[in-house]
Structures are given as structure tokens and as C-alpha cells.
Design a protein that fits this description.
This protein is of the alpha/beta class. The protein folds into two domains: about 140 residues, Rossmann fold; about 140 residues, Dihydrodipicolinate Reductase, domain 2. The protein has ten helices and 14 strands. The strands form two sheets. The chain has an eight-stranded mixed sheet with strand order 8-9-10-7-11-12-13-14, with helices on one face. Helix 5 packs antiparallel against helix 10.
């Protein structure tokens, strides 16, 4: 079977990781790249052996051979660009956060349903084999009934334009906070009964760091921290009635270390071999497109909206709005 021809919309850092991943895949290829500057797109294409470089996003959409478009631009642009792709009949793999708010997400997904064109969110931990391993572990009873979790993620990236600018939907929550929220969703699902959250807001109007406590209808709690001011240990910890487990790197699950009530490690579960981790979201998209589906089972449309609604509620508690929401 031929490799699915993928177009990359945007030529920034995350697009580079995707292009590198595609070079090593057998089922998909980086066929084209588009940037607002042709020279930049061409340099990207030359580096990653991409066949076609375009100096506008519209040219990419007009290429009849492109079978899937990966959107790798700032959050504020996702809705408009996803809509253009869908209107052009192009399937979409859109970087997280899917859009800047839930209203935008619902509009995009409604268009996908109307056009019957595939779209999903590129929130990579959802697609990794370790996500299923983690779910299976949570249901195994090895640490008893899981009553609580903590999760954190942080990087020193506030200086990046897309992070510190409110008009690009910047801040910690949508960029890194979505990962500990995703970790909590994988472990506990939905059913959130109460949200307590606080944030440090920058002069530019975006959150530098935040702390969130989610309380679930079943009595479980998730305590979450994210920041763009510096690094964190990236751990997710599950607390059960018969032990606890430490998940290393919730952004790209590396291993699960399991401990009993005497704090002795009783098991270590390692991550399967991978290229970069991005290959799983690509493969999920490839499979769905070839099967005629418009959404991925790993990240259904209703879950995309639920997570966006959750982040909307959290931001509302801080009084943090993006310029177009004022």
C-alpha cells in the first residue's frame, strides 16, 4: 500500500518533529509543506526531503495529491485553518490545543460532520500504546482502588512568541496544562463535579503558571500544575488504597514504576520502542481515513469538546480571556 501523502501547515519547531517522524514511517510521508514565506518553506523541505514547498497555505490546500494536513501553527489560528481545510475536503490532524475555546471546537467539528471529512486533535499521549497500558494498569487493582492523582508539566518557554502573546492564545494552560488534564482524563475519565483553580497572570494577559484541583463524582481528586516559566519533573502519580505508581513524563510516557504500601518497587513497566511518539497519532489518522471514518476512537470529537469546555471553565475562573473573546 502506498504511503499517505501528508501536507504540513506551518514550519516551526513542532512541524520539524513531525517531518522527522514521517521520514521514518512506512505508511505516511511528508509530501508538502507550507509557510507564509516560500524561502522558509523551501529550507524546511530541503532539510526533511519534502517534495513540495509552498509560500502560502492556500497553495497547500489546492494541491490535489495532499491526503492529510497537519496543522502546526499557534492555537489562535487553528479554527480558521481547520475550517479552510475541511471546506477544501482535506482531512486534518490539528495540533493541541484543538482551538482556543470550546465554541470554536464545536463549529469546526460540526463542519467536519457536515462535510464528512476526517479531523482529530494531535494530542499525542492519547494515541500511544502506553495510554492503553496505563488504562489497563488503572483497572488491574495492583495498587488497589485509585483515589487520587497528581500531575505536572512545565518548560521554560515563556519567551516564545506563541506562548506569551494573548492574541495567539498563549499561556501555560493551552500549551502545557492540557497534558496533565489529559493524563487525568485517561485515568479518571469525565464526571468532574468541582473545579478549584488559581493562576499567575502575566502583564500580557496569559497564565504563567497554574494550579488546578479536579474533584470527581466518585470521590477521586486530581491535583494538577503547569508552567511556562521553568522545568518540572513531568511526573504523574497515582495514589491507590494498596500502593502508588509513578508515571515518568506525562508528555511522552516513559515508564510506570509501581510501589506497595512499604514504598518498595514491585513492578516496572517500560515504554515500547518508538520513533518520536508522533507516529501513533499519524497512524491513527491514516487508519481512519482509509476506513472512511471522520473521527478517531482514541480522541473522539465529544472528548475534544469536553477538554476544551474544561479549559474554558478554568480560564473563566481566572477572568482570563483572549482578545476575540472580550
Amino acid at each position: 500500500m502506498s504511503r499517505l501523502r501528508m501536507g504540513i501547515l506551518g514550519a516551526g519547531g513542532i512541524a520539524r518533529v513531525m517531518a522527522d517522524t514521517l521520514q521514518k514511517m512506512d505508511t505516511a510521508e511528508a509530501y508538502a509543506v507550507a509557510a507564509r514565506d516560500l524561502d522558509r518553506a523551501q529550507a524546511f523541505a530541503d532539510e526533511f526531503s519534502v517534495k513540495h514547498a509552498y509560500g502560502s497555505y492556500e497553495e497547500l490546500l489546492r494541491d490535489p495529491k495532499v491526503e492529510l494536513i497537519y496543522i502546526a501553527t499557534p492555537h489562535s489560528l487553528h479554527k480558521e485553518q481547520a475550517m479552510r481545510c475541511l471546506e477544501a475536503g482535506k482531512p486534518v490532524l490539528c495540533e493541541k490545543a484543538f482551538t482556543s475555546n470550546a465554541s470554536e471546537a464545536r463549529e469546526v467539528l460540526e463542519t467536519a460532520r457536515e462535510k464528512q471529512v476526517f479531523i482529530t486533535e494531535a494530542i499525542w499521549p492519547r494515541y500511544m500504546p502506553m495510554a492503553k497500558i496505563l488504562k489497563d494498569f488503572c483497572g488491574s487493582g495492583k495498587i488497589g482502588e485509585i483515589k487520587a492523582l497528581t500531575a505536572n508539566l512545565g518548560y521554560p518557554v515563556f519567551q516564545n512568541e506563541r506562548i506569551h502573546r494573548a492574541d495567539l492564545a498563549g499561556g501555560a494552560l493551552l500549551d502545557v496544562g492540557v497534558y496533565p488534564l489529559t493524563f487525568a482524563s485517561i485515568v479518571f475519565g469525565g464526571g468532574i463535579e468541582d473545579i478549584t483553580a488559581s493562576a499567575v497572570i502575566s502583564e500580557e494577559g496569559v497564565d504563567l503558571q497554574n494550579s488546578i484541583i479536579l474533584t470527581y463524582k466518585g470521590g477521586q481528586t486530581a491535583t494538577i500544575f503547569s508552567t511556562v516559566t521553568g522545568p518540572t519533573d513531568r511526573q504523574g502519580i497515582l495514589y491507590g488504597t494498596a500502593g502508588y505508581a509513578i508515571v515518568e513524563n506525562i508528555n511522552n510516557f516513559e515508564e510506570i514504576n509501581v510501589y506497595n504500601t512499604d514504598h518498595k518497587r514491585i513492578e516496572r513497566i517500560e515504554r515500547p520502542a518508538q520513533i518520536t511518539g508522533y507516529e501513533y497519532e499519524v497512524q491513527a489518522a491514516v487508519d481512519c481515513i482509509r476506513e472512511g471514518k471522520i473521527e478517531c476512537p482514541q480522541m473522539p470529537h465529544k472528548e475534544i469538546v469536553r477538554i476544551m469546555e474544561l479549559m474554558d471553565k478554568i480560564r473563566a475562573g481566572w477572568g482570563m480571556k483572549y482578545p476575540w473573546e472580550m
